[in-house]
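Schema walkthrough. Field components (list of strings):
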Amino acid sequence: MCAEHDSLPTPSSSRRSFLFKLGLGLNVVAATLVGIPVIGYILGPLRRRTAQAWIKLGPLQSFPEGQTRLATYENPFRVAWDGATADIPCWVRRIEGERFQVFAINCAHLGCPVRWFAQSRLFMCPCHGGVYYEDGSRASGPPPRALFEYEYQVRDGHLWVRGGQIPTLSEPA
Amino acid sequence: MMRMLRSIGDWFERRTGLAAALAVPMGHRVPRSTASWAYVFGSATLILFVMQIVTGLCLALVYVPAADQAYESLEYLNYQAVLGWYLRAVHFWGSNTMVLVMTLHMIQVFLWGAHKYPRELTWIAGVLLFLCTLGMAFTGQILRWDQDAYWGLGIGTSIIARVPYAGSALVHALLGGPIIAGRTLSRFFTLHVFVIPGLLIGLVGLHLWLVLRLGINEWPMPGRLVDRETYRKSYEEEVAKSGVPFFPVAARKDMVGMGVVVLAVLVCAAIFGPYGPNGVPNPTIIDTVPKPDFYFLALYSLFALLPPWTETAVLLIGLPLAIVFLLVVPFLAGTGEKSWRRRPVAVLGVLLILLTVVTLALLGLTVPWSPIMDAWSGASTPAAYVKGRTPLELQGALTLQNKQCRNCHSLGGEGGRRGPALDDVATRLTRDQLVRQVLQGGGNMPAYGKNLTPAEVTALVAFMQTLRPANQQPARTATVPATSAR
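Field assembly_structure (string):
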């Protein structure tokens, strides 16, 4: 009976080819509908939201004039499971009065944490030997530019910075 | 007892037919010359991969891929979980050994001409396996979620941020957000445990299928050229005439090789134990000197030694080109001589790459370009350099210490090596040159003009003028006659 069925001419072979095309089409539609949210989900973090916010760094008294000190802020976009990685360090240089420079901790070369040496008034990087002067400008070594600087403002006796993203050559703080 | 086991075995075999199916590939005939010690590295890599899967599965039973608890779960594995320390150690030493043995395999097949016709695709699958394995190495290093992992990510981020236009989008894709945080670790966990292992398993399947289908590369003979017209026929003739069954004739040495590498890993793991985690991943602890695991040390050194203006080009163009070059090797020289005895360019190329990578990696261990951050406070001034000196010179010795000069310059072998050692600086620079160098810097030295008082400079230079061996003349300018030099 099957053989007989198979040998029948046009009407049923067009039905078979319709079924085949229907199956193909349904699966293409299904794959697309699955694929769109998957790709959207994976690329989610790429969506350009503001990755920066104003953060209170501390009262002005904690930054003596003429000194450079390490300060820490909490990542404004933290999630509950960030743990210690939500605490971001930065170097605060109070030049005088309300004139500041707030440097990112990351070396402009490859992002390692730079250290401040108050005696020689230099920042040194432990990775590839980049050195910066106290105003953040490049002194020597491989860095292609000065230290990254955060925008800052003084409000209600506190120092605020605009942070929340890792500063890089393509997106300086 | 044996009869019962056999009858159970037969029961399964009648239903699955697996033994009969496996007997075909296991017993397939291979050229007698391939039953060689030189051919054992591929199977050794495979068994290490299997061991990585087994130990990795075990570690995943305990490891918490969350940024706030990953470190603690590793400490738990190290100190509390029964044999947790040992499985971590086996996974670590297994990964190092896998990269090493895989590299040996790659060098061997290249020198033996196995990438040539008709095995081009086998080579390409192998290169992809190599890249995936390095991907596993990098992501695995991140899962250790310690200071090295955190700042290693910082380095990776800084590298991909250099891509023009797409840089910041790539950073967000890599980190799962604008900054290294909880979502970053989850991403790397997914890559390390699901995505890349899946790719590896698929590629291993393809690689093995191609080896079975195209045959193991025969031992190359100088003068026996590969020709697209005749190669396959002559290979088949050789196998038909003098071939041996892969199992057990060729597999015997493979089995010994597999056993040796696995035992070596187990012994290393038992003696040296697990590696890390090194320091909590708290970015506010900045007294850290991040360093990659050994497979990336060469790259790490390269960044320090390249002229800065070439860095971005080397990273973004050079590295992808190197990978493309590896992939197209079989198309650049896919026929002709197979024996390394008649391929001087291939041999020299391998030696050049090996020497470069090993030299860079060794430099990466000693990091002569990095300031030693605690040398100024930790390294003492040799007593001989302060004996019988004037108060001014002694004050200069203090200045040299206090102004962190020692971080880059050594005295008596202690201190940084970024700048030249100062033990005999007075034989190289005159007083005026010393003053100029201190004030204006130059070469790789920052200018200290703004950071030293004139009195400090005077004292520092006075001290440095005493730094020369007793039997050597101080430096002098060509315009001043020797007699009038101080």
